[in-house]
Amino acid sequence: MYQIARNVHLKHYQENKFLISDFHEPEHIEQDNKSALEETEFETRKSTLHEALRQLSPEQREIIELSRFQGLKYKEISDITGNTVTAIKVKVHRAMHKLRELYFELA
To answer: What's the domain range around 72?
Structure first.
């Protein structure tokens, strides 16, 4: 099922790579009694993170999405992508390192 969704996703973005994305984050972040300053700071960090994510390669974004946001185990990601578990571990490590670099460059 993940492989089908992945293929459809990749095909869509390959066909429409020059169009502006209308993607919205599916998760809703609740903010409980935050001050205006904290809320502004949070939004700034969030937008910086999203910008850093956009600067990653599609493969790196996919690996981070599956491992960190979807919570899949390396074995599951391995089955989806066709890579070995060891290769997935390396790719996740490199993608997170690159994301960290980009985030701090933008911050």
So the answer is: 52-107
